[in-house]
Amino acid sequence: MTPSIAVFGEILWDILPQGNRIGGAPANLAMHVHDGGFETRLISAVGTDDFGWGIRQTLSKREFYQQFINIDSAHPTGTVDVIVNTHGAAKYHIHKDVAWDYIPCLPQALDYVHRVDAFCFGTLAQRSTVSRETLQTFLNNVRRDSIRLLDINLRKPFFSEEVIKNSLYYATHLKLNNEELSEIALVHGVGFDEESLAINVLFDQYPLLNTILLTYGPKGADVITRDEQFHIPAPDVHRIVDTVGAGDAFTAGYLMAILKGKSPLGAAAAASQLAARVCGVAGAWLPQTEKFYV
Question: Can you spell out the DSSP letters for 156-179?
Fold first, then answer.
């Protein structure tokens, strides 16, 4: 049976120097696992504006299931201004009070979440009360043996200690980068440069947590479980177009491989390959003709 995955959070437009691209960490993850042949549902919201229409049209062309993407007539579709430097690294200006800040708790989505093999969520969509409360309802209804993957995705000023700790309480898998680990360390009373101690504190305080994916951009990633830790170097990329969505691709590759029964080491290798592929294209998604299977 094909594994099923539900992803909660933002779908939006990245406004890039070379043109607009659909993005948002949850949407990027959802598209990668969809393209990889997994049953995928994104729980989000778009407006009735041209940006919202563009998202719906694009998802239709890619045969992506949209039943749980609410159409919000009161708020615009989300947008993010993306500034890419000469090294390909991106910075983001995320606009507020948009449709994905008001994701409703649709009964059919709640029923679906209760049955999935993996439920993925982040912290950014929790910046608003409405979406945060909707997510809380979903988290309380996920099947006990499902993977609950948290992409911590700390974007200042859109997070709080309460959101971080509550999200970690539910997570079985945590994906974050080294800068985000420093923030989480401080929240838990650990020095920002005490990486190993911070990892131990997370495993001690959150009993459901069993795997941490710690990314370092071009320096690769660490996969840390309660029993082992190993480093995966980043593959060579012939030409980096931009790094938008590379971390989301890593998360997607790892999740797909784990659901296919691969070991953490094998899953990390697959994740690294997908992230490298994404760095070689503009925006966060591979072209529809370029599939990636684990």
Answer: TTS--HHHHHHHHHH-SEEEEEHH
Q: Lay out the sheet containing 39-47: strands in order across.
A: 69-72, 39-47, 4-8, 118-122, 147-151, 173-177, 211-215, 221-225, 229-232
Per the listing, tokens 């499902």 go with 146
Cβ pair 58, 69 in contact under 8 A: no
Q: Is the pTM of this model over 0.70?
A: yes
DSSP category for residue 102 = G
SS3 content of the chain, % helix, strand, coil (to 5): 40, 25, 40
| φ, ψ for residue 129, nearest 5 deg | -65, -40
**Radius of gyration in angstroms for the set of CA atoms belonging to the chain, rounded to a whole number:** 18
C-alpha span between 19 and 282 (Å, rounded): 9
Find, among 220, 222, 194, 227, the residue nearest to 273 by Cα. Answer: 220
Q: How confident is the model at residue 279, as a pLDDT?
A: 86
Give residues with Cβ within 8 angstroms of 94, minimum separation 6: 78, 80, 124, 155, 158
- 10-residue block means of pLDDT along the chain (294 residues)? 95 86 94 96 98 98 97 97 70 90 97 97 97 98 96 87 96 94 91 83 96 91 94 82 85 96 94 90 83 81
Whole-angstrom distance between the N-terminal and C-terminal Cα of the chain? 16
Question: Cis (ω within 30 of 0) for the bond into 157?
Answer: yes
* 126: CB partners within 8 A, 6+ apart: 132, 135, 159, 163, 167
Predicted pLDDT at 195? 81
Residue closest to 131 by CA, chosen among 156, 165, 96, 155: 96
Distance from C-alpha of 157 to C-alpha of 53, rounded to nearest angstrom: 29
Strands 90-94 and 118-122: unpaired
If we measure between CA atoms, which residue out of 241, 274, 281, 276 comes closest to residue 36?
274
